[in-house]
Design brief:
Length: 149
């Protein structure tokens, strides 16, 4: 898929997006910081970190809410909560609720190579689901920041 903007072309000769550019986003061609929803409180912490990072980089924020079929249906609550927050942001922000059966596979499809990802989580001595997800995303070549509550 070849994506272009009016100002400049942000693809390589092979048609793949540059590092940190998302191939499926409305923001295509713009640098973005991706926040992945885990839990509301943890994600709010991640959004604060992403906001500071995006402001410093001149980037946009994209929030991905995986709606896994194995999780209880939290979509309504999360979507309502984050839509309110997104409206109040001074940094351009996009909210994506993505249904999936495998969160890691869906994220691999949704994220461009080398994306900057911010995850919220709790600081624990043992591995948490957020730290395991961060490890998998790093292994896939993404830059991941963990923001602790």
């Amino acid at each position: 898929m070849r994506t272009t903007t009016q100002d400049n072309d942000r693809t390589t000769d092979s048609g793949t997006p540059e590092k940190g550019m998302c191939p499926e986003s409305e923001f295509c061609g713009e640098f973005e910081v991706v926040v992945i929803y885990t839990r509301i409180r943890a994600t709010l912490c991640a959004m604060k970190t992403a906001g500071r990072l995006a402001a410093g980089l001149g980037a946009r924020i994209r929030i991905i809410v995986p709606q896994c079929q194995t999780w209880p249906d939290q979509r309504g609550e999360a979507e309502r909560h984050f839509r309110t927050i997104v409206r109040d942001r001074k940094i351009e922000t996009q909210l994506e609720v993505r249904p999936c059966t495998d969160r890691c596979r869906m994220l691999q499809q949704a994220l461009a190579p080398g994306s900057i990802v911010v995850l919220g989580g709790a600081c624990r001595r043992w591995p948490t689901c957020e730290s395991r997800l961060a490890r998998k995303l790093r292994e896939a070549g993404h830059d991941v920041l963990l923001s602790f509550e």
